[in-house]
Amino acid sequence: MIERYEAEAFLTLADELHFGRTAERLHVSTAHVSQTIRKLERRVGVPLFHRTSRRVELTPVGRQLLDELRPAWESVGAALQRAVEAGRGLSGTLNVAFVGAAAAQLLVGAAQVFRDRAPDCEVRLREAQPGQVVPWLRSGEVDLALGALPVDAPGLVTGPVLVREPRMLAVPADHPFAGRGGGVTVDDLVGVPVVRLRGHIAAMPPGRADREPGTRGPGTREPGTREPLPGPTADTFQEALTLVGAGQGVLPVGAHARRYYARPDVSYVPVGAAPLLEWGLIRPVDRTSARVRAFAEAAAGLVDADLVDTDLVGPA
């Protein structure tokens, strides 16, 4: 049976056909390479290389050994690499959820970068409605999700933040807000019905609108409070926009909605003096695997390289 150091010396010398360069590649002395090849030749029983003062070349037996040994040795190396990757968790399947079209576009690019780095790991992308993200993450149905931050859900952690975008307000096309060239402020939402997304895990813009509205039902307000009115609740983003278009309320959104959810019955107006809306990865705190970490690195690298064509403002 050929030893590893013998195989490496033989294959490297067959490539270089020069003892000095072979020794440099293997980080050993020229004498060590020469001794290893002689030992291997004694075991085979015939020379594997013709040596002169000017050149080194394979003998017919050496060529035969090279042709048969190289594929087998490469196969052994590949098998070892697969074992290492499996041990690190870079094989198997990674299930990633996204909320919204812009998040989908970012994840498609991140998945491609990840597949290039971990070809033995399959990435499955799944669209989730806002109310599905937390149950899917907690049940293990998905390993990771991309959505708006911050997230107020015990047992989940976020990061990295990938992109930031301005906050906007979706309003009916004929709403008084729609004609405001300078946009609206958070305080303008006081007394305005706000459509809610069931199970939405991202916070509202800071300010009075960030507090939970009263609980007396759509169109009513707790006496003495200065808050948005609780509007109707929708299960999907498109349903929420339909309610907005029907005049039943307004909806806080990110700037990407103008591009991905353009509608004739809805206008988008900027929300002034509000911090940027952050988008990032969400995962269970107790299930951060090597696959999850590698995917997060791929997504962050993609954004840092400015390779994502979205309507978001750019890297966090």
From TrEMBL:
<keyword id="KW-0805">Transcription regulation</keyword>
<dbReference type="InterPro" id="IPR000847">
    <property type="entry name" value="LysR_HTH_N"/>
</dbReference>
<comment type="similarity">
    <text>Belongs to the LysR transcriptional regulatory family.</text>
</comment>
<dbReference type="InterPro" id="IPR036388">
    <property type="entry name" value="WH-like_DNA-bd_sf"/>
</dbReference>
<keyword id="KW-0238">DNA-binding</keyword>
<dbReference type="InterPro" id="IPR036390">
    <property type="entry name" value="WH_DNA-bd_sf"/>
</dbReference>
<feature type="domain" description="HTH lysR-type">
    <location>
        <begin position="8"/>
        <end position="59"/>
    </location>
</feature>
<dbReference type="InterPro" id="IPR005119">
    <property type="entry name" value="LysR_subst-bd"/>
</dbReference>
<protein>
    <submittedName>
        <fullName>LysR family transcriptional regulator</fullName>
    </submittedName>
</protein>
<feature type="compositionally biased region" description="Low complexity">
    <location>
        <begin position="218"/>
        <end position="228"/>
    </location>
</feature>
<dbReference type="Pfam" id="PF00126">
    <property type="entry name" value="HTH_1"/>
</dbReference>
<dbReference type="Pfam" id="PF03466">
    <property type="entry name" value="LysR_substrate"/>
</dbReference>
<keyword id="KW-0804">Transcription</keyword>
<feature type="region of interest" description="Disordered">
    <location>
        <begin position="204"/>
        <end position="232"/>
    </location>
</feature>
